[in-house]
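Hey, I was hoping to borrow your eyes for a little while. No rush at all, and the record is pasted right below:
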Amino acid sequence: MPQTITGYFDTRRDAEMVVEHLVQDHNLNRNRVQAMAEGEGNSSGTVVSGADADDAEAGETPDGLRQGRIVVRAEVDDDLMEVALASFRECNVVEMTTSQD
């Protein structure tokens, strides 16, 4: 029976990495994975990362808004559950829950 994993990430990069792992490494159908801002507004996460980090070190204000975490939800069958959970952990998930569909 499918379960839904919901993970919260501080950076968009970490959220995008878990999506890539699930889809490319574990062949999860991309339609079964969603990535979105935690709140109503657009967000690039809560932590400056990636190219924004270089700008911040140079004293520039990064473009990305840090108004909330990035949420990734994945509907996963039992046979992929353990590797999917491991992928979330490897990609620095901050908070994670699972629920039965």
Observations:
- The CA atoms of residues 36 and 90 lie 19 Å apart.
- The longest strand covers residues 3-9.
- Strands lie at 3-9, 33-37, 70-76, 95-100.
